[in-house]
Design brief:
It is a single chain. Helix content is 41%, strand content 16%. With 403 residues, the protein is an alpha/beta fold. It has 2 domains: 140 residues, Alpha-Beta Complex (Aspartate Aminotransferase, domain 1); 236 residues, 3-Layer(aba) Sandwich (Aspartate Aminotransferase, domain 2). The strands form 3 sheets. A 7-stranded mixed β-sheet has the order 4-10-9-8-7-5-6, with helices on both faces. Helix 2 packs antiparallel against helix 11, helix 3 runs parallel beside helix 11 and helix 6 packs parallel to helix 7. It starts with 8 loop residues before the first helix and ends with a helix. It binds 4'-deoxy-4'-aminopyridoxal-5'-phosphate. The site of 4'-deoxy-4'-aminopyridoxal-5'-phosphate (PMP) has 14 residues, from helix 4.
């Protein structure tokens, strides 16, 4: 008999370590979620600082009311793909809203952000093309490249000079397209891409630029379009990809472009064609959230006040984030065992942060990853800092050494 699970033997070691330390990151279950920033975990009321719910819109009364109405009027699911039987008026309306929000001619909705990257990259790149991606790219960018069959070249993280060198070395005699793919801010480290410089490089080499604004949409830029907008070069980006699973507070993915031929992806992009479309309630929640993002920047202003507060509070403890203040505050902890112990103690102290380690992070990088929300109260953020300080004291940790 084939032993299908034998390939995971090495993982057993990791599981044994978790058992010995008494932590179970994959076992975290939110038994109740009374608000965007709190859950009951293991029967304990816990402050959530690891949700990506940057604007707190998952609990926005307008989004909930819109979702409820759609649920009652249109049912629980579309039960089909956009191509076959799953396009509802709501899907089209969200696409129009996204195009307007980004001031682009075309927008395409996907079922998740993961699928948006898969769908865009696999459709726009093929075996004759070359895709250059930042080495720290999210798994779905890697997977999208793989699905495309293109030649994939990684360039050094956030290093336009390295990109320039690699583009300069390309043999372009085959005539294929060259695409560069980066993220607005990187999900684990929280650092920003130097989009202005990347745009100059891509222009010099006649390449196209795709920016995944998953963690920056709704957070950066005067209209909340992301880091490309904030950098003043939004229009130079050929295609923007995003997700509804973070600042929009629900689930879904999208891409926008000024090229009306983006529409053609509906006929060729397999991750668009061969999966069910988003359910009406999700679409309605996303529509309400997009309108909320479009309408004003009060939520963004609140988020940025919270970012500054948590950043300052943690820095005062000697915990310095890897990146400048932003919605993701990543704190480096040397050693896996130390990281797991710290994370488990924080959870027992009523604070949930993300545990980030390879392969989600670069090799050898272990992080306590916090994400800030506009919905956090000042008291909650202060409690988070107190918990960090108490946990460190309890573990005999020198916090300055942890960062
Ligand atoms: N792109 C990036 C940069 C991400 O961090 C993520 C999710 N963490 C995704 C895409 C996938 O988004 P979704 O959760 O909507 O599938």
């Amino acid at each position: 008999m084939a032993d299908l699970f034998a390939r995971f033997a090495a993982l057993e070691e990791g599981r044994a370590l978790l058992q010995r330390l008494g932590v179970n990151p994959l076992g975290v279950c939110m038994e109740e979620t009374p608000s965007a920033t709190e859950a009951v975990i293991d029967g304990r009321r816990t402050i959530l600082v690891g949700t990506n719910n940057y604007l707190g819109l998952s609990f926005d009364p307008g989004c909930i009311a819109a979702a409820r109405e759609a649920l009652e009027r249109q049912g629980t699911g579309s039960t089909g793909s956009r191509v076959a039987n799953g396009t509802y008026a709501g899907h089209r309306a969200v696409e129009r809203t996204l195009a307007r929000l980004y001031d682009r001619r075309a927008a395409l909705l996907f079922t998740t952000g993961y699928q948006a990257n898969l769908g865009v990259l696999s459709a726009l790149a093929g075996p004759k093309d070359t895709v250059l991606i930042d080495a720290d790219s999210h798994a779905c960018i890697y997977d999208g490249c793989r699905l495309s069959g293109a030649t994939v070249i990684r360039f050094r993280h956030n290093d336009p000079a390295d990109l320039d060198r690699r583009l300069g070395r390309l043999d372009r005699s085959g005539g294929g397209n060259v695409l560069v793919v980066v993220e607005g801010i990187y999900s684990m480290l929280g650092d920003r891409a130097p989009i202005g410089e990347l745009v100059e490089v891509k222009r010099r080499h006649g390449a196209a630029l795709i920016v995944d604004e998953a963690h920056s949409f709704g957070v950066f830029g005067p209209k909340g379009r992301g880091v490309a907008e904030e950098s003043g070069v939004g229009r130079e980006v050929d295609l923007i990809v995003g997700t509804f699973s973070k600042s929009v507070g629900t689930v879904g993915g999208f891409c926008v472009s000024d090229d009306p031929r983006l529409e053609l992806l509906r006929m060729v992009s397999r991750p668009y064609m061969f999966t069910a479309s988003l359910p009406p309630a999700v679409v309605a929640a996303a529509q309400a959230a997009l309108e909320r993002i479009e309408a004003g920047d009060d939520l963004r202003a609140r988020l940025w006040r919270n970012i500054e507060r948590l950043h300052r509070g943690l820095a005062a403890l000697g915990l310095r984030s890897i990146a400048p203040p932003g919605p993701v505050i990543a704190l480096r902890v040397e050693g896996l065992e130390r990281l797991l112990t710290f994370w488990g103690a924080l959870l027992r102290a009523g604070v949930y942060v993300n545990l980030a380690m390879p392969p989600a992070t670069p090799a050898g990088v272990h992080l306590l990853r916090c994400s800030v929300s506009a919905a956090h109260t000042e008291e909650q953020l202060d409690q988070v800092c107190t918990a960090f300080a108490e946990v460190a004291r309890g573990l005999g940790e020198d916090l300055a050494g942890a960062a």
